[in-house]
Amino acid sequence: MDSDGAGNIYLANGSAWNGNSSGTHKFAAAVPPAPSGPCAFDGDTSCNTADLDALYAVLGTDVPPTDALFDLNSDNLVDAADLTEWLSQAALINGHGSAYLRGDTGLDRDIDLSDYNALAANFDPNGTYGPYLWLAGNFDGDDDVDLTDCNSLAGNFNPLGYGTAAVPEPAAALLALLALLLASASGRLSNSG
Ligand SMILES: [Ca+2]
Ligand SMILES: [Ca+2]
Ligand SMILES: [Ca+2]
Ligand SMILES: [Ca+2]
C-alpha cells in the first residue's frame, strides 16, 4: 500500500485486495468541503465576532474581486446590508430565535453595561485611533465609534437579554405591567377630558 501527498491511497498490484491486472487501485482521498455560509468568513465553522472582523475587513467592496462568500444578500456589494444579514443568519445557526442586535458587543444575547463600557472605552467619533471592530462598539462597520453606534446600543439596551422566550423575567413583566397601567390611566384621562 502506498499514498501520495494528496492523501490518495494506492493498493499495489499483487496485494490481496487487487481485483484486476491493470496495476494499482486508487482510493481517492475524501476532500472535506470548504466551509461556507456566514460562519466561514474567518475560515472556521463557528459563528462569532471573528467572522465580523473578517467582514469588516472587506466592507464597502465589490464582488468580485471580494469573495462572494461575504455577499450574503447577493447584490454584488459587501456592505451594511450583509452585516444585517449576518446578524440574522448567524443567530439562527447558533440556535437563537431572533437576530443578534447592534449593541451586543460579545454576542451574548444581552445589551448591558458591559456592552456600554466597551463602547464608552473606545468612543472616538472621528475614528482617529480606528478602525474599530464590532467588539469595540463599532456596530456599522465604518472606522469610528460614534453617536450612531451609541444610539444603536441605547435603542436596543436590554440587560435582561433580548429575543428570549415569551415568558418574561419578573422585572420585565413588572415594567410591562406599569406601561399597561399608565396607558389605561392616560386613556381614562383623555376619555373623561
Ligand atoms: Ca467563523
Ligand atoms: Ca451584499
Ligand atoms: Ca452583550
Ligand atoms: Ca461606527
Summarize the structure.
Helix content is 35%, strand content 6%.
Radius of gyration: 26 Å
Domain count: the total is 3
Q: Please describe the biggest sheet, giving its number of strands, its sense, and whether it closes into a barrel.
A: 3 strands, antiparallel
Q: Whole-Å distance between the termini?
A: 94 Å
- Shape descriptor reads elongated
Count the E strands: 5
Q: List the strand order in the largest sheet.
A: 1-2-3
Counted by DSSP, the helix tally is 5
Helix content range of the residues, please?
Answer: 25-40%
Structural class: mainly alpha
Bound molecules: calcium ion
Q: What's the average pLDDT? A: 85
**What fraction of the residues are assigned to beta strands by DSSP?**
5-15%
Given as residue ranges, the uncertain stretches (5+ residues, pLDDT < 50) are 14-19
Order of helices and strands: EEEHEEHHHH
Overall description:
There is one protein chain. The protein is mostly helical and 193 residues long. 35% of the residues lie in helices and 6% in strands. The strands form 2 sheets. The chain has a 3-stranded antiparallel beta sheet, with no helix packed on it. The chain has a two-stranded antiparallel sheet with strand order 4-5. A hairpin with a 5-residue loop joins strand 1 (2-3) and strand 2. Mean pLDDT is 85; it is low at 14-19.
